[in-house]
Structure formats: C-alpha cells, structure tokens
Specification:
The structure holds two protein chains of two kinds. By secondary structure, chain A is an all-alpha fold. In chain A, about 70% of the residues lie in helices and about 0% in strands. Classes of the chains: A mainly alpha, B mainly alpha.
C-alpha cells in the first residue's frame, strides 16, 4: 500500500466518519505510547539524575552515606578508569567478531538453502533451532558439553586425533563467547539473507542467463549488489542485540579477564556487587551515547528499506 | 532454472544433488550441540561424563530433575512463574499493540511514521540505561521477587516489536474491503470482527509467538529483580549445574525441558518470524 493511499484516508477521515476528530484517531495509540514512555523513557531520565549523585544502595552498606550531588565526578572517573576502557574494547571486539562471523556463515547457509532439494524444509527448521534456544541454555551447552576440559566433546575429538586438550574457556574466554554468540545468531542472519535472495527480481536474472552470463558473474554483478542492504540490515540488527550480550558472559566466564563487556562491567559495578548506582548510571549514560550513534545508522537503513516496501 | 546454463543436464543434476547433500551435512553439524544434548539427557550420569555412545537410555534424568530437593527452586515453581509471566505479558502486549497498529495502519494518524520510529528507537536504548531506577523503585515498592515486576518489564521489551509486526500485517488488509464495509453501514466492531480479523489473525498469532519466545528466554531482568521464589526457567536450568558430582545428564534434561516449548513455538512461527525479527522491514 502506498503512502498516497494513506493520505487519501487521512483526507477522507475529515468528512463524516466515526473517527473524524484527530484525537479520536489517536486514542487507540495512546495506551501503548504512554506505557512505553513510562517504562523506558522515565527511568532513563532518572538515570541521568542518578549519574550526577553518589547514590548507593542503602541496604548494602553498614553506615549509609547521605546521597548528594557530585557534579561531573562520576564522568571524570570514567575517563580515568582503565578497566572501563578495557570493557569498551572487549565490547567492540565481541560485537564485531560475532556479527561478521554470523553474517558470513548465515549468507553461505542462505545460498545453500535458496534452491530446492530433498528435505529443504527440514534443514531450514533444524538450522533455526539454535536461535530459539534460551541464551542461558546455549551458553551452558557449549560450556559444559563442548568446551569443558573434563567432559567436553571437542577435547575428546582432539585427543582422539592425537592432539592435547585445550582449556577453551579459561585460555580463550572471548573466543569461546564469540563462538556461542555467532552460533546462535547465524540462523537469524540466514533468515534475513534468505529473504533477500528470494526478493531478487527473477526476470533480470533470466535475461542475464539468456545473454550467456556465467553463474559467478550473475552472483557478483546482480545478486551481491541486491543483497547489500540486507547485509546492512542484518549487521545492524545483530549489533543492537549482541552489543548488549549478558547471558553468555554471566554463564560462561562470570566476567573473567578479557570477557567483560560494557553491560557486564556496569552490572558488576552496581547490582552485581558494587551497588554504586551513581557511578554506574554515569557509565550507563556513556553507553547510551554510543548506542544512539549506532542507532542513528540503524534507523536510517531501516527507514530506507521501509520506504522501498511502501513504494512496492 | 535460474542458474547454470553452461552445464550439461547430467552435470547440473550432479551439482544440485551435491549441494543438497552439502546442505544436509552443514545443517546436521550446526545442530550437533543441540542433538548431543538431547542424546545426553537420556544417558546415565556416568555415561554422560564419559561422553560415550552407550545403549542404556532412559527417561530417568527427566524424573530426577522434576523432583527437586527441598529448599531449592523446583521445576514446578519456575515453570508456573514463567508460564504466568509469559502469558500475562503477551496478552497485555497484544491488547496494547493491536489498537496502536490500527491507528498506524488502517486509519493512520498524522505523522504516524514518527510514532512508529519512536517505538522502535526504544529498542536501541541499552538495558543498563534504565535498570537502576527500575531496581531502586521496585525495591521501594516491594516488587522485587514478584511476577508483577517481570510482567511490567516484559511488556515494555515486546511492545515495540509487536506494534511494528502487527502494523505490517494490518497494512495487508485491502482498503477496498474496509471501504465496502463502511458503505454497507457495518459498524466498527463488525468491521474488525468480520473484515480485518480474518486477514490479520495468522500475523497476530505469529506476533504472539515471538513475544512468548523473547519473554520465556529472558534472563537479565529475571536474575536482577527476581532471584528468590519468583524465579523463572532460565534460573532453574542453572540450578542444575552442581559443583559436587556429575550433573551433565541432568543438566541436559533440564535444558531440553526449558527449551522445548519455545523451540516448538518457533518452528510453528518460522514462516512469519522474519518479519518480526526485521521489525517488519522484510516479508
């Protein structure tokens, strides 16, 4: 449906139908809007306020300190905190590695699944399963069944092949977590890329076929440019979720060296043990500023796809 | 046939067959950790720790994990908590999302696009940005450890997604049908019931399933705000990790129990899932 059609309805709405007044039109929207504002926006504003105070959890200290304004002290502390810088770097590495890996593998899977073969539906169904698993369970499966130095299947295979055991999680904490994240998010990327492949205009490809273009040439000249925006969409949506990864870190390493990302660091500083809400809020606000930068790009990609859909 | 004009018929058939076989191998390898966990859940603890291919398989571990020791979180408690939280939050999400989607798709308000993008922008706000005030106020209002606090938060998590998804299904209702119903003098309730609902019902079902999946799997809020008796399934799975004795088979059984409902729901919704996951951008 086109935007023009929507405008027609807006215009028509002004003459004598039950929803003639603008406020009656907005009414059905209000409960949802108010709810979202109350639960997501208000706490954020309160967080900004906290970030300028020395608020601590009263129940957690023997001699409760009165809460007072500390100005930008919490923010100054952030930029002199080497552990926070390390957490930012870990976040970047974790997100980029997991997104790129899952995107590459997911695209390859999508290309494999984009043609008819016996059991296509079965394989597709099986492949999306890791994405449906509880993140906690996915992390536990890998930690206890696959990576474990004592009982792990991977080490059994390595030993069988004549190699020494590897302590995957303690020696490669980031790599282990990235493996699990990429394993879970590959099906998500596969679904997005599959939607991209299937939305390809077949007439152009057929014309190229008739003109004698090679399959590789068709893929490079036609399919890949068409897939670009789907790759962008997958990368951005994946980043939004993966940058906030918490479950896998909590279950697999509990935030050991090299695997503490920013959300986990902020958690440890506050409700995870530190109970310094004031300074933790300041960290959170810095995270939000980074997120807004990423989100601006994400929304732009989403908006462009969205306008295409309306034009179609 | 879209591809491979240069190959002979026989060669092309071999390539197609080869790629089909490759897809099978890759698919089975990818879900190996899942398959192995399902397999382990039927083993004895000794066989599970040795990672052997053993023949004595039974449902013994399933009955082990469903009888908990007193004083720890039981499967029954966690399951009921999850069930109530997931069902109630999903129903409220739909009750809020459907009218909103109506106002954004069927009879779009002025500047509907801005509203739509406002909803989705809340998904970009990191959880840590709002968790402290929520925690402080939940403590103040004695909501820590209750189902209520999780219901309230899960609605907020799923609502933007649900609005985007249902809106994209509402957009598919042909305008002519609604106009025809209006000309016939059908009132709003009957328009909704007999014209709009039959078309969007499968989409609403898929939206509900996706909300169920996200709420069922949620761990961060559940851990922070609900560590005691209000705990949900993810925390129950973790209680099956033990520092004394072998636990791999029991943990596997617990994992299967915790994931099965949602995996089945996801398989059922897979055809329409992509629309929800891409915020309605893809069909």
């Amino acid at each position: 449906l086109t935007a023009a059609a929507a405008d027609v309805t807006v215009a028509r709405g002004r003459v004598g139908d039950p929803f003639s007044s603008a406020w009656r039109r907005r009414l059905p929207l209000l409960p949802a809007l108010l709810y979202v504002v109350a639960i997501t926006q208000l706490p954020f504003v309160v967080s900004i306020y906290y970030s300028f105070t020395n608020l601590k959890d009263k129940t957690q200290s023997l001699v409760p300190e009165p809460t007072r304004f500390v100005g930008f002290a919490n923010y100054r502390q952030i930029f002199s905190d080497p552990f926070f810088r390390q957490a930012v770097w870990t976040s970047v590495k974790m997100t980029v590695l997991a997104v790129v890996l899952s995107l590459i593998i997911g695209t390859l899977f999508a290309i494999l699944l984009d043609r008819k073969f016996l059991g296509q539906g079965v394989i597709r169904t099986l492949l999306i399963t890791p994405f449906l698993l509880m993140p906690v369970v996915a992390a536990l499966i890998w930690k206890q069944q696959m990576f474990s130095s004592l009982f792990g299947v991977l080490n059994k295979v390595l030993n069988f092949l004549g190699f020494n055991s590897v302590a995957f999680i303690s020696d490669h904490p980031l790599g282990s977590i990235v493996t699990v994240l990429a394993w879970q998010w590959t099906p998500f990327m596969m679904l997005i890329m599959l939607a991209g492949l299937q939305s390809q205009p077949t007439d152009i490809i057929e014309a190229a076929n008739v003109d004698g273009a090679s399959p590789v040439g068709i893929f490079r000249q036609l399919t890949l440019p068409h897939l670009r925006r789907y790759l962008e969409l997958g990368a951005l949506l994946g980043s939004i979720y993966i940058v906030q990864a918490f479950d896998a870190i909590d279950v697999m390493t509990g935030g050991g060296p090299g695997s503490t990302n920013v959300p986990y660091y902020v958690y440890q500083d506050s409700i995870g043990g530190g109970f310094r809400y004031g300074s933790a809020s300041a960290y959170a606000i810095v995270v939000v500023i980074f997120s807004i930068i990423i989100a601006t790009f994400a929304l732009r990609v989403l908006l462009s796809l969205f306008k295409d859909e309306e034009r179609a | 046939m879209r591809r491979g004009t240069r190959l002979g018929v026989g060669e092309r058939r071999a390539v197609v067959l080869g790629l089909g076989v490759l897809a099978w191998i890759v698919g089975l390898l990818w879900i190996f950790p899942v398959a192995w966990t399902v397999f382990t859940s039927f083993k004895t603890e000794q066989d599970a720790s040795a990672q052997t291919l053993h023949h004595s398989l039974s449902f013994g571990r399933y009955s082990d994990v469903s009888h908990s020791t007193p004083g720890t979180l039981s499967l029954q408690t966690a399951f009921m908590n999850s069930l109530v939280v997931v069902v109630v939050s999903t129903l409220i999400v739909l009750a809020l999302a459907l009218p909103a989607a109506y106002a954004l798709a069927i009879r779009p308000i002025h500047r509907w696009r801005d509203v739509l993008f406002f909803f989705i922008s809340t998904k970009f706000l990191p959880v840590v940005a709002s968790i402290f005030p929520i925690y402080v106020y939940a403590e103040k209002w004695n909501l820590i450890g209750t189902r209520t606090v999780l219901i309230v938060l899960y609605i907020a998590i799923n609502l933007p997604l649900a609005i985007w998804m249902t809106r994209s299904f509402f957009m598919e209702v042909p305008r002519e049908l609604i106009e025809a119903a209006e000309i016939d003098g059908t009132n709003l309730f009957n328009q909704l019931r007999s014209v709009i609902l039959p078309i969007v019902a499968p989409g609403i079902a898929a939206t509900a399933l996706l909300c169920v999946i996200f709420a069922w799997n949620e761990y961060f809020y559940a851990l922070q705000l609900n560590f005691a008796n209000g705990s949900t399934m993810p925390q129950w799975v973790i209680t099956n990790v033990s520092t004394r004795g072998n636990f791999l088979a029991k943990l596997s059984a617990a994992s299967v129990i915790a994931c099965l409902p949602v995996v089945l729901a996801g398989w059922a919704a897979q055809k329409r899932m992509i629309r929800g996951l891409s915020m309605g951008a893809l069909k």
